[in-house]
Design a protein that fits this description.
Layout (H helix, E strand, L loop, with lengths): L1 H14 L2 H12 E6 L10 H9 L3 E5 L16 H13 L3 E6 L14 H14 L5 E5 L11 H20 L3 E5 L4 H11 L4 E6 H6 L4 H8 L4 E5 L16 H11 L3 E5 L11 H17 L16 H18 L5 H28 L3 H24 L4 H11 L3 H12 L5 H18 L5 H21 L4 H14 L5
Parallel strand pairs: 1-2, 1-8, 2-3, 3-4, 4-5, 5-6, 6-7, 7-8
Helix pairs in contact: 5-6, 7-9, 9-10, 12-13, 12-15, 13-14, 16-17, 17-18
């Protein structure tokens, strides 16, 4: 049966285009994930949904904080809790690629008399989470000079040998993070003398050492790299990082026939360092398209066929303002929303183009038909968005498409007339949102603002009827704004 299955698979691969075969092989060879402690979800159930939303294949789970505790702050040593986590991960098709002991970034391995207990806790957690094979052990807490301090190094090597032998006995490998190049790491591994210890390769370290990463990886060898932290220190996204030649790294790993997990640890854009979805979404997208040659296909197709390429790119750039505002650009969710918004713009363009062509024949009929089509399509836009976004997120989409005029105008009205009642505020907001629904379908920026202009006139008439002297209110408002250093 196995032989028949193998023959069938080979026959299928022969029928597939060469590029499709290569992508399939790369998808199997490289797995992309994020570190849960860096996406602010350390041992939180939400890490799996977040990883899914980011387009990850899996996640690197941390053992929890260590600090001055005797043990990791690890709730996953509880079998019931671990089983719950595993069920949620499985339900979202998110694999657990590695378990990290990140507490040793700050804690000295050689100063922990119970270090084997800590490592056993990690191994037990790996078993509970589905027989995870790779553990991550940073040596940063050992200090800056442990590699050159003879006594310190001897103690590090001795403890890593014991850890490695225990890992080997349990069918696992512990990947260590060192401040060494390939030559230094190979020497260290020979000293450790355990197949249970390998290198958890970190691109950031290689950059800091000024290494040619591709060459350094080749020197180290595929069998000595158990996993990769595929990111640099914070600064820019991976796609914009001139210090990392990811194409060359992939070529090297391909030639080495390396396979395994690549996790994003950092490489956050410092201009939006707290924006988890944008930072990690961008980096995961970049790694998946670079190393796997593919990315989860959006369920919503973009209606761009037959349209000029420069026009399509303009619409994509305009629509991305929506996904940027929602912090979902570079994610599968963001791609679906982007395509929905792009299709909305394409639809408007088609309706107005048809209207303009018919106006030469019958202007009244052309306008009536356009209005009818806009009415029908308007509700479809909301319905399409509702499949992917919450009501509040849909509000954000509408605000972005209408230049945030609702909020700007409403806030200005409330600031200009501090004595507005709750009833009056509600009425103003309702009319502005009604105007927004019409402005969304307007054919240009000027037309959108004209819609709001008409409704602002309605609001002014309403307030005047209720006894407000708008000229006086406006003059007093100008004075207050200038007094607090603002401008009108």
């Amino acid at each position: 049966m196995k032989k028949l299955l193998t023959i069938s698979l080979l026959a299928l691969l022969q029928l597939m285009p060469a590029t499709a075969v290569a992508q399939s092989q790369d998808s199997a060879r490289y797995q992309i994930g994020v570190c849960d402690w860096m996406v602010l979800k350390r041992q939180k159930l939400g890490e799996f949904q977040l990883a899914h939303d980011l387009g990850c294949n899996g996640i690197e789970i941390d053992m929890g904080g260590l600090g001055q505790r005797d043990s990791f702050d690890n709730k996953l040593r509880n079998p019931q809790e671990a089983a719950h986590f595993k069920r949620v991960a499985d339900s979202l098709s998110i694999a657990i690629g590695a378990v990290a002991m990140s507490g040793f970034y700050a804690q000295d391995l050689t100063q922990r008399n119970n270090y084997m207990d800590l490592v056993e806790d990690c191994f037990n957690t790996m078993d509970l989470m589905g027989n995870v094979r790779v553990a991550f052990l940073p040596l940063g807490g050992c200090g800056n000079n442990w590699a050159t301090d003879r006594d310190k190094r001897r103690e590090v090597v001795s403890r890593l040998h014991q850890i490695g032998e225990r890992a080997k006995a349990r069918g696992k490998v512990v990947g260590i993070d060192t401040p060494l190049d390939a030559q230094g790491n190979l020497k260290l591994l020979r000293e450790i003398r355990s197949e249970g210890i390998s290198i958890f390769y970190k691109l950031q370290t290689a950059v800091e050492l000024g290494l040619d990463i591709a060459k350094d990886m080749r020197r180290l060898g595929a069998r000595n790299i158990c996993a990769i932290h595929a990111s640099n220190t914070d600064g820019v996204w991976l796609r914009n990082d001139s210090l990392i030649d990811m194409a060359a790294i992939k070529q090297a790993l391909d030639q080495m026939q390396w396979s395994g997990w690549m996790f994003v640890e950092r490489s956050r854009d410092t201009s939006m360092v707290r924006n988890v979805r944008m930072n990690y979404g961008s980096n995961v997208h970049f790694l998946r398209t670079t190393f796997q040659g593919s990315y989860p296909a959006p369920k919503v197709a973009m209606d761009s066929a037959g349209r000029p390429a420069d026009y399509v790119q303009t619409i994509i750039s305009r629509s991305q303002k929506v996904t940027d505002q929602l912090s979902i650009t570079w994610t599968p969710l963001g791609q679906n929303v982007l395509n929905i918004v792009c299709n909305h713009y394409f639809m408007l363009n088609d309706i107005y183009a048809e209207r303009d062509s018919l106006r030469n024949i019958d202007r009244q009929l052309a306008d009536a038909q356009a209005e009818q089509k806009l009415y029908r399509k308007h509700f479809a836009f909301d319905a399409d968005l509702s499949l992917y976004l919450t009501p509040q997120q849909i509000e954000t989409v509408k605000d972005v498409l209408t230049y945030n005029v609702v909020k700007v105008t409403y806030d200005a009205q409330c600031d200009m007339i501090p004595t507005l009642t709750d009833e009056e505020k509600a009425q103003i907001l309702a009319w502005l949102k009604e105007a927004r629904e019409l402005a969304i379908d307007a054919e240009s920026s000027r037309k959108k603002h004209e819609v709001f202009g008409r409704y602002k006139g309605r609001i002014n008439n309403y307030l005047s009827r209720r006894g407000y002297d708008l000229n006086r209110e406006r003059e007093q408002w100008y004075e207050r704004v200038r007094a607090r250093g603002g401008q009108i």
